[in-house]
Design goal:
single chain, alpha+beta, Beta-Lactamase, 6 domains, 25 helices
Length: about 775
Amino acid sequence: MLLNQTVLVIVGLLVAAWTVAAGWAVLVARGRARKAEAHHRLARRLTRMVDESPALPLLVRADGRIEGPSRLAGWLGLDAMPGYLSELDAGDASDRGLNEVQLSQLSDAVRRAQKTGAAFRMVLTPRGGTRCLAVRGHLADPQVSPGGSALVWFFDFSDSEAELRKLRAEAAGARADFAGLSGLIEAAPLPMWFRGPDMELRLVNSAYVKAVGAKSADDVVTQGIELIEAADGLTAAQVARHVLARKAPVERIVSATIGGQRRSVRVSDLPLGDEGVAGYAVDIEELEELMRQFRRFREAQREMLDTLSAGIAQFDERRNLVFANQPFLRIFGVPQAWVADTPPFDRVLDRIRDAGRLPEVRDFPEWRRERQGWFLARDPREESWHLHDGTHLRVVGQPMPDGGLLMIFEDRTEQLQLSATRDTLLRTRTATFDNLFEALAVFAPDGRLQLWNRRFVAEWGLEDSFLDTHPRADVLLTRIAQQLKRPSQVGTIGQVIQAATLERRQRSGRLALADGRYLEFAGVPLPDGNGLLTVLDITDSQKAETALRERNAALVEADAVKTRFIANMSYEFRTPLTSIGGFAELLQSGIAGELTPQGQEYVAAILASVERLGEQIENVLDLSQSEAGTLPLARDPVEIFPLLTGVVKERSDRISAAGLSLDLRGNASVGTVTGDARRLARAFGQLVDNAIAATPEGGRILIECTRQRQGVRVVISDNGGGMEPAVLARAMEGLKVTPDGRAAERRQGLGLPLVRQLVEAHGGTIELLSEPGQGTAAIVDLP
C-alpha cells in the first residue's frame, strides 16, 4: 500500500512537472508570437514609412537589374518599374522616363559606385514633366544586398527648388548690391558706377575716372561727369530712372569716348531696390571686331563650301541644321526653304530617308541613334552609303568644338566606275599582251622589268620564276646574251631600253640568234614614264627579203637587157626597113629602067608595106620604152584642135573608102597642152583608126574637143557594133577573146595599150565606154 502511494506521488509529481513545462512552453510561444507580430508590424510600418517618405530607394544589382517601389516609377513618368537600369529610357518616341544623356550619366555613376564604392550626387529631370529629382547613390550594405549592388536614393525637391532659386536670386542680388556699393566697384577693370534715388552719381571706380579723363572720383561725382553720351534723346540718368521705375535691368550697346578713342561698349543698368541704380560698361570693341571678322569668315567659308563638289551639312550644338551647300541639296533633293527652318538632325535623316537617299538598314531607329552619337564622339567618323540607285557616298562626320557636327557627303560613284573601268582595262591589257604575236616587255625608269607576256618568255627562252623576281635590265641582258649569235651585240638592247625609259626616244635594231632566227626589236617610250620593248621574229620575212633582193637584182639585170635589146632592135629594125624603102623608091623612079605596070604595082605595094611596118616599129618601140619608163617625150605647147584636124585629114581617104562620115567639133579656142605633138597625134590617130575599123559602111564617127576646168577633153565615138564587158576589159591589154571564149589572142596592131601608155605618159587618162549594138566611145582627158 505504501508502495502504491509512493508511485502515485511520483506520477503526480511527473504530471505536475509536465504541466508546468507545457505552461512554460505556451508562455514562451506566446511571447515569441507577440514578438514576431511586433516585428511584422514594425516591418509594415517601416515599409509604409519608406513609401511615404520623401526619399525613395532604388537598388541596382551588379548585372543591371533594379528593384524599387512603384511610386518611384511614377516619379520617373513610367507606368511600372522596369527590370533593368537601361530601360529607364522609354525611347525618343516617348515623352516619359529619362533621356539618353541623363540615363548615360546615371549609368556611369552607378557603375563607378559599384566598382570603386565612391558615392555620387546628381540632379535628374524626367521627360514630360516639371519634377526635379535629387539623386544620391552609394555602395549598398552587404546586409541589404550582397554582391556589389548600388543603392540610389531619389529625393523629390520640386517644391523646394523654386524656393531655392528665389533664395539664391535674393542672395545673389544682395551680394551684387553689396559688391556694387563696396570694393568690387573700385577693383573692377571696367567702368562701374552707382546712382542714388535722385539719379545723381554717388560712386564711381577708378576705371570710370580713367575712362572720362578726370583727376579723381570725387571730381567726377561733384561735377557729374557722364561716361555714356545721350542716345535716342535719352541721357544716362534718364535711362537709369526708367530702370528704377521698371525694377528691371537694361542692357544696351552704345558708342563712348574712352581714353580719347571711340569705342563700342555694352552698358548695363541694374536696379538695386529703392537704393538706386548700379551700372557698368564693358568695352566690346575688340569683341565686335571679332564678331565682324567671324561673320565675314563664316560667309566666306560658306561661299567656299558652296563651290565644293562634296555635299556639306553643318549642325549646331542644339543638333539643328544651320547650313547646307548646293551639292548637299542636289544630292538629297532638299529645298533651300526647308533648310532655312533649321530642322533637327532627326528630321533631316527622316527627310532624306523619305527621299530614298539613305542606305537600307534593318533597324532604322537604332541606326539613327548611332549617328546621333557622332555629336559626342571625339574623333571623326567615316562610313560608306550604298544607295539603291547605285550611288556610292563617302560620309564623314566631323565633331565640332562647340558641340555641333559637320557632315561631308562625297559622291564617289564616278570614281568607283573609273576604278572598275581601270581594272577592266588592266585585265584587257594583260589579255592583249599575252595574246599578241609580238614579244612585249615593260621596263621602269630604274631599269627593272615590270610587265611581260608569254611570247617574250618563249622568244628568249627564259623561265617564269626568273622573271617573277622583276630583274634589272643588266641582269636580264646577261641571260639573253647567251642566245645571241654575237653575244657582244646584247648592249644594243640595253641602249634601246635606256633610250625609251630615260631619254624618251624611240630606237630599234635587229639581232641574229644562235639558232638561226632573226629578231627585230624596238624601244617605245610610254606616257607613264616606262619604256616598252617589242621583239618580233622576222626570220621568215628576212628570208623572203633575201629572196626578193636576189630577184630584184635579177629583174634589174633583165631590165638592163631589155633596154639594150630595145636600143639594138631600134637600129636593127630601122636599117633594113630604110634600105628596102630606098631601093623601092629608086625602082619606082626608073633608075633601073622603066617598070611594067605590074612592076609599078609591086613597088607601090612594097612602099605601102614599108610605111605600115615603120609605123608598127614605132608603136613597138614607143610601147616598150613606155613600159620600161624610158620613153622620151617632148614638152612643147601643142594646139589640140589643129592636131586633131591634121589626124582627120591624113585619114580622109580611108574614111571615104569605108563609106563613113566624120564630124569634128571644136575650134582653136580649146587651147593647148604641154606634150609631144608626134606621139599625141599617134595616140589620137590610133583611136580614129579603131573607130574606122569598128564602124560599118554608112556609119558615123564623132570627134569632139572641149575645154575643161582641169584641161582638155577629147571624145572619139562611133556607132559601130560595140563590145561586150569582157571584151572591153581586155581591150586595153591589146587582147581579144577567141570565138570559143576560152583563149585570147593579140589583136592586129598594138592598139589601145599604146594609146593608154602615151596618154598616161602625158599625165592624162583614157576611159572606154561601149555597149553592144550602140558603139564605142573613147574619152581622153589631158591636163
